[in-house]
């Protein structure tokens, strides 16, 4: 969530940015997992926290 002190107009952009970065991190974790031939603990945690 955007900081409470921010203008409400910026909240949607903040949330979209956080979602975009989170999805990118999950893709990186999945790519790393496939290179290693398995699922790393970190990749599993990211996938669970992002709902993938």
Low-confidence stretches: none
Query: Order of helices and strands, N to C?
Result: HH
Distance between the termini: 20 Å
Shape: elongated
Mean pLDDT: 76
Oligomeric assembly: single chain
Tell me the Rg in angstroms.
14 Å
Number of strands: 0
The largest sheet, given as strand count, sense and whether it forms a barrel, is: none
Helix content: over 70%
Counting DSSP H or I runs of 4 or more residues, the number of helices is: 2
Q: By helix and strand content, what is the structural category?
A: mainly alpha
Q: How large a portion of the residues is in β-strands, by DSSP E?
A: under 5%
Ordered list of secondary-structure elements with their pairings:
Blueprint: H1 8-36, H2 41-50
What keywords describe this structure?
52 residues; mainly alpha; 75% helix
Summarize the structure.
The protein is an all-alpha fold and 52 residues long.
Would you give an account of this structure?
The chain is mainly α and 52 residues long. The chain has two helices and no strands. The relative contact order is 0.13. The protein has helices at 8-36, 41-50. The mean pLDDT is 76. The longest helix has 29 residues, at 8-36. Helix 1 runs antiparallel to helix 2 (41-50).
């Amino acid at each position: 969530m955007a900081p409470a002190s921010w203008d409400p107009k910026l909240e949607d952009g903040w949330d979209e940015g956080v979602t975009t970065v989170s999805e990118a991190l999950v893709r990186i974790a999945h790519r790393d997992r496939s290179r290693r031939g398995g699922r790393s603990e970190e990749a599993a945690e990211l996938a669970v926290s992002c709902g993938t």
